[in-house]
Amino acid sequence: MMERLESWKLAIERLRSAEPVDWAEAGRLIAEIARMSTDVTLRQAAEQALPVLRQTVDNDDRSVMLAAQRRLGVVLDVVHGLTAPRFGRRNATPKKLSSEDRARKVLGLPLAVQLTCDDINQAYRRAAKGMHPDRGGSAEAFIDLAAARDLLIHPGAHKDAWERSDEIS
């Protein structure tokens, strides 16, 4: 599909750059795009350009030619948008958090800040108020909260238990 888009792009650019534009050829190309394109936006742009391009074949009216050139430009813009490289990592899977970072997230603590035991306990108490089973929270969430607190206070001692509970859920 990408090769076809590239060939359409080159053909449209060639047609637009020619001094006397061959409107019959442009009409055939745009009809092919309207018929064969799998992209909805490109197909719609081509279908909207076809009547104007067909009208331009035997017409010397300057306003009709300008309208046809604009429609050809719209189709070219859509093709260019489909063939342009996409930068960034939009479809990349998010990086897995470490067990300590997951524990910080559960407690609502910042990820890159040095924490004291008091900071961890305060965050635990604040989060436990809403997650306690007696207050309408779930027992699993409360257990995870306690495990997160224990992992942050004693990093080596409870690490395995936190990772096992994460694998189970």
TrEMBL record:
Residues 102-166 form the J domain. PROSITE patterns: DNAJ_2. SMART domains: DnaJ (SM00271). Transmembrane segments: none annotated. This is Bll6670 protein. It comes from Bradyrhizobium diazoefficiens (strain JCM 10833 / BCRC 13528 / IAM 13628 / NBRC 14792 / USDA 110).
